Amino acid sequence: MRWTFYNLWNSSLENREERLLKERKHIWASEMGGAMVDRFLKMNAVLPTNPPNPRSLRKFEAGNIWESIIGFVLSRAGILISKQTYLSYQYPNLLEVTGKLDYCAGGKPDYDRAKNLVSNEFNWLPEFISRATIHIVEELKEKYPDGLDEIVLEIKSCSSFMFELYEKKGVGSPNHKLQLFHYLKAAGKSEGHIVYVCKDDARLLEIGVANPSSVEDIYKMDIAEITTYIQANEKPPLEKPIVFDDEFGKFSANWKVAYSNYLTLLYGLENQFAFDSKFKPTVEKWNRVLGRVKNGDKMTDKNLEALDEISEAGFDIEQVKKAVLSENNITANQEVE
To answer: Which one of 3.30.1360.60, 3.10.20.740, 3.90.320.10, 3.90.78.10 gives the CATH number of domain 18-109+147-227?
Structure first.
């Protein structure tokens, strides 16, 4: 059989070196905000029953590709200060948090030199990168002749659906905010941006995080909670498979369960498809009922049964209704990935 480029490409992306699993007493910044029980097992070097599949590995590398492109543009525009800087922070009596920031950018570049490098010495670059970089340099030179503040950038790629969700609400993912805040806290920086790249059409969105800010309260509570479990050698409780978001006024299948590396061990489910098949129909049914609540429609017997199911699952039905009727939330029956 003749060789095919797609086979070579796919196999190269799937050939990803994984971190050696070993017991540790420190927290990775990238896992903050994740399921406590999963983090406890990882920190105790329990082998995953559901490691990333080939598709997941390719998605990781797709994110790395976009991160590299942005780093290349920052570098050639002359505003890249540092990258992949290892940073550690530890509160007294709590576990240490470690991680590597993506980029720190800003400073006072030599704009003319940067433009000359792109136009001449680096003319082998893909045309769209060169064009974008030159445009950035020209705009920076016009608007910031005295240089730029230093800002930490954390790059995340996402689907157009999630991109538009972040854009509409003007907030990033809570775990991404915690990860970025760690770099700010550890480096003593005052400002960072989560840069979301839409994989479908190359749009960018930046969500700011400040230091100091209220994010530190959540950051410290997260560290304190996992510290308690690790020091007591006590496995945290399992995650609920269905969660309710007050801000969005809707139910969703819990991604912390769906994407768990211990899905089989903890929840007895073979894979994500099994999780989706079991819980997403219930999520859709409950959200349809919330849509009727929002619209003021008359409740049928089936609707009332669904409301009873919501209560029996441990949710405060009055609080759910209050969130649904809020004018600021997203439509209750809109499905979120």
So the answer is: 3.90.320.10
CA dihedral 32, 38, 44, 47 (to 10 degrees): -130
Q: Collapse the DSSP code of 57 into the 3-class scheme (helix H, G, I; strand E, B; otherwise coil) and give the result.
A: helix
Mean pLDDT value of segment 299-316: 95
SS3 content of the chain, % helix, strand, coil (to 5): 50, 15, 35
Token pair for residue 79? 């505003």
Locate all alpha helices (DSSP H) within the chain, ordered by sequence.
Answer: 5-14, 36-43, 54-76, 111-116, 127-143, 160-169, 174-187, 215-232, 255-258, 263-267, 272-295, 301-312, 317-324
Q: What is the pLDDT of residues 106-148, one digit of tens each?
A: 998 888 887 777 666 656 667 777 788 888 888 988 999 888 9
- Give the neighbor-by-neighbor strand order of the sheet with 204-210: 80-83, 103-107, 148-158, 191-198, 204-210
